[in-house]
Design a protein that fits this description.
- Strand 13 (321-325) and strand 14 (330-334) form a beta hairpin.
- This protein folds into 4 domains: 107-171, DNA polymerase, domain 1, CATH 1.10.150; 188-241, 2-Layer Sandwich (Uridine Diphospho-n-acetylenolpyruvylglucosamine Reductase, domain 2), CATH 3.30.43.10; 246-359, Uridine Diphospho-n-acetylenolpyruvylglucosamine Reductase, domain 3, CATH 3.30.465; 368-475, CO dehydrogenase flavoprotein, C-terminal domain (Enolase-like, domain 1, 2-Layer Sandwich).
- It is α+β, with helices and mostly antiparallel strands.
- It has helices at residues 37-43, 86-89, 107-115, 124-135, 155-164, 173-180, 203-212, 226-231, 266-272, 278-287, 290-293, 298-303, 311-317, 335-338, 419-425, 432-442, 456-475; strands spanning 10-11, 18-21, 24-27, 62-68, 74-80, 93-95, 188-192, 195-199, 217-219, 238-241, 251-253, 257-261, 321-325, 330-334, 339-341, 344-345, 352-359, 368-376, 387-395, 401-409, 416-417.
- The protein has 17 helices and 21 strands.
- The N and C termini lie far apart (60 Å).
- 29% of the residues lie in helices and 22% in strands.
- The strands form 5 sheets. Strands 1-7-8-10-9 form a 5-stranded mixed β-sheet, covered by helices on one side.
Length: 483
């Protein structure tokens, strides 16, 4: 058993100053709420969890936490501990590689031994924890470890280990714990290292806190903000966590629209809405590795206003709207009007993104829609985009374009639509001749920058060629709709 760490935290009257690690209660004292979970684990002697990149890219720091699945039940979720602020874990349970053996090797550990899945060993704990989380869902496969990098390039024996436990029956103390677990995250208020951390459970509390602390920073999954925690590039006097706010965690679907709470993790959306929006399905797969998708949220991806964010192009192509709330009012705004400039958004002081509303209805006069999204990056799910694109074209019975939406990321200061080209397309037949004319216009639709990921000219070519790729994949080059 690990001795209590001497890291201390100043408590307020309703503060919960403990978290559970491998079944043991860990007291916290004076710890900074923005210390990463990885730092805390290693400082408290749990060095099985490794630090590789510190950016959430390599998976060496993977641990498991409790989370809610699409079925509403508790599931183990693999997450990158290098991105999670310690404050977010207070009152919750963390499982590390040291805690899964229970006196004998866990099934996934045994499989890694028997297949020779460990070479230098540095990445091994991360692979094991990713497989551990998937093991209890019965979903262990190659994609279970998509967010884990092996620097020795020993993937074949690791894949064999995953295959070995694919059909194993997960009945043990961990599966029993899942049956009894709750996914409710407790409210929290505490101070540590001259920082205040709040975790309210109701939207009203969030809005009241924002009135009291106008300088506060909002945090949910922390997969973006976590980089600043990991590298200590900023200080955060007041943090308000949104991950426990009930009104931000809902996901509702009707015949006309889908409304996704701003704090719903992407993996939950991926499981729940699969097949509803094909372009969203595609982008969620490539968005990032599973560890990131288990934490990242729609509200966070939109609120950071990154010009290379992967979700905004998809949402722009689907005419998404945002529901915003403040202490005094609520309003709905088109996502197309939300981005004002580089990292600038139409979010007023004291206002919060509550949800994203995506309409399911077609344009008037349309009989069907073709849609798809694309992410061009150097390392698939483990890198940000060079260019991201999403297209939605509504067609009438005569195969004529009623409405077109062509949206891109990575080509301007904000995620943006090629509005002039959309207007050029409307009313035209959906065929290769129309697409070729659109391609010519698309080459000059944006003025992207050159950076380490790609040149401006390369990005311009991608803007045009991805639209042609979309047409060919959706209809075939002859224009006939694919079955």
């Amino acid at each position: 058993m690990h001795p209590p760490t001497d890291v201390t935290m100043n408590q307020s009257s309703d503060n919960h100053s403990t978290l559970t690690i491998n079944g043991e209660t860990q007291r916290l004292k004076n710890a900074s709420p923005t210390m990463t979970l990885l730092e805390f684990l290693r400082q408290s002697g749990r060095v099985g969890t490794k630090e590789g990149c510190g950016d959430g890219d390599c998976g060496a720091c993977t641990v498991a936490i409790m989370g809610r699945g699409a079925d509403g039940k508790a599931h183990y979720k693999a997450v990158n501990s290098c991105l999670i602020p310690l404050g977010a874990m207070i009152g919750q349970e963390v499982i590390t590689v040291e805690g899964i053996s229970n006196g004998q090797l866990h099934a996934v550990q045994r499989a890694m031994v028997e297949t020779g899945g460990s070479q230098c060993g540095y990445c091994t704990p991360g692979f094991i924890m990713s497989m551990f989380a998937a093991y209890y869902d019965g979903t262990v496969d190659d994609m279970s470890v998509e967010g884990n990098l092996c620097r020795c390039t020993g993937y074949l024996p690791i894949r064999r280990a995953a295959q070995q436990v694919t059909k194993a029956r997960a009945v043990d103390s961990f599966s029993e714990k899942l049956k009894q677990a709750t996914t409710e995250i407790p409210s929290l208020r505490y101070e540590g290292d001259e920082q205040q951390f709040y975790r309210p459970t109701r939207l009203r509390e969030v809005l009241d806190l924002l009135q009291q602390h106008t300088e506060a920073t909002l945090v949910a999954g922390a997969t973006d903000l976590g980089l600043e925690f990991s590298w200590h590039t900023r200080t955060f006097p007041v943090l308000i966590s949104l991950e426990a706010v009930a009104e931000l965690k809902t996901l509702n679907q009707t015949t006309e629209y889908v409304e996704i709470g701003a704090a719903v993790p992407l993996s939950h959306v991926e499981e729940t809405l699969r097949g509803v929006f094909p372009s969203l399905d595609e982008m969620l797969h490539w968005f990032a590795a599973r560890q990131v998708r288990n934490r990242a949220t729609f509200g966070g991806n939109i609120g950071t206003a990154s010009p290379i964010g992967d979700l905004p192009p998809v949402l722009l192509s689907l005419d998404a709207e945002l529901r915003l709330a403040s202490a005094d009012d609520e309003r709905i705004i088109s996502l197309a009007d939300f981005f004002k400039g580089y990292r600038q958004i139409d979010l007023r002081t004291g206002e919060v993104i509550v949800s994203i509303v995506i309409p399911k209805t077609l344009a008037a006069g349309a009989s069907r829609r073709v849609q798809q999204s694309y992410k061009v990056g150097k390392r698939g799910t483990d890198d940000i985009s060079i260019v991201a694109a999403a297209f939605a074209v509504d067609l009438d019975e005569e195969n004529r374009i009623v409405r077109a939406r062509l949206a891109y990321g990575g080509v301007a200061a904000i995620p943006a639509r090629a509005v002039a080209v959309e207007q050029l397309l409307e009313g035209q037949l959906w065929n290769i001749e129309t697409v070729q004319r659109a391609k010519s216009a698309l080459k000059d639709a944006f003025a992207p920058l050159t950076d380490l990921r790609g040149s401006a000219e390369y990005r311009k070519l991608l803007v045009a060629n991805l639209f042609e790729k979309f047409f060919v994949e959706m209809t075939g080059r002859d224009g006939d709709v694919k079955p």
